[in-house]
Design a protein that fits this description.
With 430 residues, the protein is an alpha+beta fold. 24% of the residues lie in helices and 32% in strands. It has helices at residues 9-14, 181-188, 219-232, 245-256, 274-279, 291-302, 313-323, 348-358, 368-371, 390-397, 415-418, 420-428, and strands at 24-30, 33-39, 46-55, 58-70, 73-80, 86-93, 97-101, 110-116, 120-128, 134-144, 153-157, 163-171, 174-179, 196-201, 238-243, 261-267, 378-383, 403-408. It has a 10-stranded antiparallel β-barrel with strand order 1-2-3-4-5-6-7-8-9-10. Strands 11-12-14-13-15-16-17-18 form an 8-stranded mixed beta sheet, with helices on both faces. The relative contact order is 0.10.
């Protein structure tokens, strides 16, 4: 059953222009699976919709949908490819959510939609599992362009057929590229201002992008992907903000494509040399994490406690609740980090094999000699209390006249959340 969006009964009764936010196209990307839905504006008391799901670019399923007001209820009728037509009736409708049910249907029996802002929504489907328990799945969709062209949000396809997700915020001649938008879109949107556009993207195997072969999960491939994204979006030169491991990766891109980068901001970067990491004792966040609780969670997972979730989102969120606080001096701020477990790429069963393949490609790296030949301005921002060694941040700037270091305290791995005033002032004036 594809994901569709209904509108409140009171709005349907008006049936003129009330659901302007729904008309158009919505997109869901989960690994190599993409669902696109297209909707007409309401007219004559009904809405018409159609959806199409692709896996690795090949058609997997499609569906036609009618949402109609009948007898004071919303009747949602879906005609999926290869299945019989089924109708669901609304049981609850508000200005921002609705629920439709058909308890005679096998699965799903209940569909719940919650609107999130103006350009996104969460849909949940529920029904019985084979053992009789209720199971449910959450899906996140965002508004997208209907014309298939590079717009405010979309995908580019790399030369090895992996789709990379991007989203553009703001407008202007200054372009700033930011990898791992799954984490940073909402956290760094305050940087968008007149004259500047931010281009967030998810690297392969992360967030909303496709996966590809694990044998291609290498640093060289990551750099090539960014260069292909730049070319596809017709960006001549750009500033870059790289956070965490991407602070190092974006430095490598700058080393290899110095003519494309105007300036580089490295936020909480891993050190420029593996040796520095080793000598500093590695990532200090591990010592701040309750390893006994993690081990207990793993036992629950192996015992099948998360089986109805497919071992995915719920297990991912349970791990995040145990590990995310180690990123902060104030652990309550972990609740402000976006829910990346919405995307299958971030589930431990998928993310673990990706890192197992990617990290060996780094080797015993040391980028200090090569970064010395980069003359563009660089700003390194690091939280004094970050588990990533501060010695690494210092190594990125020591001896390099074009680079400077800003140490924020108290702050951990998300200085934009713990010291926002200093962080955004530094980046905006850099």
């Amino acid at each position: 059953m594809s994901l569709v969006l209904a509108l409140p009964v009171a709005l349907m009764a008006q049936a003129v222009s009330a659901p302007a936010w729904l008309a158009g196209c919505w997109q869901l990307q989960a690994g190599n699976r993409e669902t696109m839905e297209m909707w007409t504006a309401p007219a004559g008391g009904l809405m018409l919709g159609a959806s199409r799901t692709l896996v690795n670019g090949a058609l997997r399923e499609y569906e036609q949908i009618v949402i109609k007001l009948e007898g004071g209820k919303l009747v949602y009728t879906a005609s999926p490819s290869g299945q019989r037509t089924t109708s669901f009736s609304s049981t609850a409708v508000t200005d921002s959510s609705f629920t439709v049910e058909n308890l005679q249907h096998d699965f799903p029996q209940r569909i719940i939609y919650r609107r999130r802002g103006t350009d996104s929504l969460i849909a949940r489907i529920e029904g019985p599992s084979p053992d009789g328990r209720t199971r449910g799945f959450d899906y996140a969709m965002r508004r997208t362009s209907c014309d298939g062209q590079a717009g405010r949000e979309g995908y580019i396809t790399t030369d090895d057929s992996v789709r990379l997700y991007y989203r553009i915020v703001g407008d202007g001649p200054e372009t700033v590229i930011v990898p791992v938008g799954l984490y940073l879109e909402t956290l760094l949107e305050p940087l968008a201002r007149p004259g500047r556009r931010l281009v967030f993207y998810d690297p392969r195997h992360r967030g909303r992008s496709g996966r590809g072969e694990l044998s291609r999960a290498t640093l060289d491939r990551q750099i090539a992907d960014l260069e292909q994204l730049r070319a596809a979006l017709k960006i001549d030169r750009m500033a870059i903000i790289g956070w965490s491991g991407y602070g190092m990766e974006m430095a490598v891109y700058t080393i290899r494509h110095p003519d494309r980068v105007t300036r580089l901001v490295q936020v909480a970067p891993v050190p420029p040399a593996a040796r520095i990491f080793r000598e500093a004792g590695g990532d200090g966040r591990a010592a701040r994490t309750d390893t006994a609780a993690l081990a207990a969670l793993e036992r629950r997972f192996r015992a099948g406690e998360f089986a109805t979730d497919g071992g995915g989102a719920a297990y991912c969120r349970a791990r995040e609740r145990l590990t995310a606080p180690a990123n902060f001096v104030d652990p309550t701020l972990a609740a402000r980090v976006p829910d990346v477990c919405r995307w299958e790429n971030e589930w431990p069963a998928n993310l673990g094999p990706y890192f197992d393949a990617f990290l060996p490609s780094l080797g015993d790296f040391d980028w200090r000699d090569q970064i010395a030949r980069v003359s563009i301005p660089r700003l390194v921002i690091h939280g004094r209390e970050d588990g990533i060694p501060l010695a690494g941040a210092r190594a990125w700037v020591e001896g390099f006249p074009a680079a400077r270091l800003l140490v924020l305290s108290p702050a951990g791995h998300f200085p934009m959340l713990e010291r926002p005033a200093e962080f955004f002032a530094a980046v905006n004036t850099f």
